[in-house]
Design a protein that fits this description.
This protein has two helices and eight strands, in the order H-E-E-E-E-E-E-H-E-E. The chain has helices at residues 3-26, 111-123; strands at 36-44, 53-62, 68-79, 82-90, 94-95, 99-108, 128-139, 147-156.
């Protein structure tokens, strides 16, 4: 068998994975922007337990035309580099294209890091409290892979 005949037989099998890969790339949105997040509120939850439970209100903005079908959220809130709140949420709303939604999630504060934070605040005279909010968005949308967004800044204490 000549090299030409061999190539004619295996060429269709070599091209098939390439065509499938190109077809998969065509479904991706090239100009897709990451969703934007903002922590818009933290309130103490009314509970009968001694645990410090909070409700976080997180605003999620979809800057794209396609809706985001949220599957779940994992979040961490660190204050002065101490992880104070973390948790997960599911059963979240779909965020339509070019719109936003405020999602409420419940969390319980970790006792040890909360006490460390209180101690630091009593000893500090800086007047600001650095924070970092990290949110991982899980999506049912095939065009949006799990996305981690981090926001940081400082809060005035006076």
């Amino acid at each position: 068998m000549t090299l030409f005949k061999i190539m004619r037989k295996i060429l269709p099998f070599c091209c098939l994975p390439l065509l499938l890969a190109l077809g998969a790339c065509a479904t991706l949105e090239p100009n897709r922007e990451q969703p934007k997040i903002d922590l818009v509120g933290i309130t103490k939850s009314e509970t009968d337990t001694a645990a410090l439970q909070f409700t976080l209100q997180i605003r999620i903005v979809n800057p794209n035309a396609r809706p985001i079908e949220l599957d779940g959220i994992f979040y961490e809130l660190s204050l002065d580099e101490l992880e104070v709140l973390s948790g997960t949420a599911s059963n979240l709303p779909t965020i339509e294209g070019f719109s936003d939604a405020i999602v409420s999630v419940r969390s319980t504060a970790g006792l040890v890091n909360s006490m460390r934070l209180a101690s630091r605040l009593l000893e500090s005279d800086s007047g600001v409290l650095p924070y970092e909010l990290r949110i991982k968005l899980g999506s049912k949308s095939r065009w949006l892979t799990p996305t981690t967004i981090t926001k940081s800044g400082s809060l005035p204490l006076r």
